[in-house]
Amino acid sequence: MVAVPKDTSGVAMSATRELIKLGVRDLHLVCVPTSGIQADLLVGTGTLRTIETSAVTLGEFGTGPRFAAAVRENSLKVLDSTCPAIYAALQAGQKGLPFIALRGLIGSDVMARRTDWKVIDNPFGDNDPIALLPALQPDVALFHASMADREGNVFVGREREVLLMAQAAKQTLVTVEKIVDGNLLEDEARAGAVIPAIYITRIALSPRGAAPLGYLDFYPQDEDELARYAGMARTNEGFNAFVDEWLAHGAALA
Amino acid sequence: MSANHTKTELLITVIAGLLEGCRHVAVGASSPIPGSAALLARKLSGGSMRVSVLGSRKNNFFTNGGVELFDLAAQGRIDAFFLGGGQIDGEGNINLVGSGKYPNSDVRWPGSFGSAYLYFLIPKVILFREEHSLRVMVPKVDFVSSPGTSPPNVHRPGGPTHLLTGLGLFSFNRARKRFLLQSVHPGHTGDEVVRQTGFEFDRIDPVTETPPPTPELLRLIRGEIRAEVAEAYPRFAASSSFG
Prior knowledge:
The complex is a heterodimer.
Chain A: E1 2-5, H1 13-21, E2 27-32, H2 37-44, E3 48-53, H3 65-73, E4 77-80, H4 83-95, E5 99-102, H5 109-113, E6 118-121, E7 129-134, E8 140-149, E9 154-155, H6 161-168, E10 171-180, H7 188-191, E11 194-195, E12 202-205, H8 223-232, H9 236-253
Parallel strand pairs in A: 1-2, 1-8, 2-3, 3-4, 8-10, 10-12
Antiparallel strand pairs in A: 5-7, 6-7, 8-9, 9-11
Helix pairs in contact in A: 1-9, 2-3, 4-6
Chain B: H1 7-18, E1 24-27, H2 32-44, E2 50-53, H3 67-74, E3 80-83, E4 87-89, E5 94-95, E6 98-99, E7 107-108, H4 115-121, E8 124-129, E9 137-138, E10 160-165, E11 168-173, E12 178-184, H5 190-195, E13 202-209, H6 215-229, H7 234-238
Parallel strand pairs in B: 1-2, 3-8, 4-9, 8-10, 12-13
Antiparallel strand pairs in B: 4-5, 6-7, 10-11, 11-12
Helix pairs in contact in B: 1-2, 2-6
């Protein structure tokens, strides 16, 4: 089980390319709480057995086309979720709890279809049904961040869902824009926005590692490239042509 | 469309009116019209309204990641929010997942996002979908991303209050589980709304026309609001959505 963040929170696209090159199969992808081109590429290349997500969207270019095709063809197990359920289940994982309670959900088909979720009567209330979700403890959290120091501390700024992911997951793999000297925790103004090294398994330097998605002030999303992907991925052939090019010339893109 | 304003400017005006009196309005991702309306409503409140626009750095104070929006909602710290749907039915049920038989939907949409939670918890949820057609306004949704109403024992301080489309504005009565057509936009008729709606709704004859933006509002929308919304939605702000 691999957890990845939403498009604006640091998507490790260069690492995703390497994952696809390795021909990894049968992954369970947890999107925190949504994904875009990353999930669509992983679906289209047959890397996933299961996707757990609140959405797969290319923003203004619509639903991930390979995701939509896989749904139609029944070649992917989809665990449809809702954003706060994914966060809450990770929070349970973060705390080492077996489950967590969450409001909402009751009466939705999201709830009805999730046989792994339950409704109980609030034991502290009176006739108050509430949903329970099992904890998510991903094997791996994979994301991109601004910088790491040589101690293994990683600065994430206000993109704190990746902190939640790192604390919930058994292992955390991070790509970064740059490696800096010194210890990020020594600067009190920055320390609160740092993931301490204890949660980090491996760090790889990968400038522009989120491209063609954007990353904070480092670079904007490459709208032309995403439009090109959205167009080509409408057919299997177009998608394969895009992926072949991406794998071959990826260094230029990401 | 009447002469001196665009449809987008009318929709912004209507939504801003519905937001009057709110303390904190949140706007989801990819929602330029609600985003513009919230910024306008804040301006009209003299700055007392707080607005959180997902996807904006300037108009978003969240420092605890994506979960913060949901925690705020559960505590009653958000008064108004916007949801849409690939399908919306007459009982206010919304479908953001796909048309056809789940799970192998013929047409798959991105997914439910936070709707299965926020629809329950935010007191004023405005359903906004510009396309008003029989394929969107259906008798019954194919998948309930989130239900319009809940049994009395389910914790539900929130839910739909209005449905705004490119044709008109409805209010929602939770006890009756029904929409009431409040007004039709200039250039459209009540009969047209009936023809384009796959569910039954209440109406009062003669139906009133949605009031257009005043010249002062139009000036604000085209000036300050358009400039402000460009930070999160540059392409929208540069488009012909504004007159």
